[in-house]
């Protein structure tokens, strides 16, 4: 496993960690899956999408897990040695992942950038250039704008209020591409620095 040290800078303090358990949260279009795949490849750590914890994917359609099944599956994942978990969810059933995580990465790119990415991704999915866990219908496409706005106005402030006790291990990223470049650039010697807005 590649040993990558993160220099986490907050208003309160700074510290270095070697994360083996990473939780990535952000709105639709924030770059969660892209970052999770990149970190998974760089660190040789498996990654999981919370949507696939909620749903059992199948060739004949998706089946939603019961609350008990969903929570049991997530508990199994977070108790393994290393993982990257990504998703928009922050409900009570996800709290165990935030608690077990060595680092929480909150993706917060500009609101309009997320809208652009939603449109771009939908186009790629309809053209068959990009795969999706779901059927990219126009209905889902419209809902993504609603979900994006809800995250910005409701879910984001709710997260920082509800999980304020985890602020010392939460890093806010507004530029995922810059972070990835630091992660993969050998000149950084395995150290990535981030100014947070906590």
Structurally, the number of domains stands at: 1
Strand order of the largest sheet: 4-7-3-8-9
In the CATH hierarchy, the third-tier topology is known as: Rossmann fold
* Rg, Cα atoms, Å: 17 Å
Binned, the helix content reads 40-55%
Count of extended strands? 10
Termini separation comes to: 30 Å
Based on secondary structure, the structural category is alpha/beta
Order of helices and strands: EEEHEHEEHEHEHHEHE
- CATH architectural name: 3-Layer(aba) Sandwich
Figure out the total of helices. 7
Using the alpha-carbon principal axes, give the shape: globular
Poorly predicted residue ranges: 1-17, 189-198
Name given to the CATH homologous superfamily: P-loop containing nucleotide triphosphate hydrolases
Overall average pLDDT: 84
Fraction of residues in β-strands = 15-25%
**What is the makeup of the main sheet?**
5 strands, parallel
**CATH class placement:** Alpha Beta
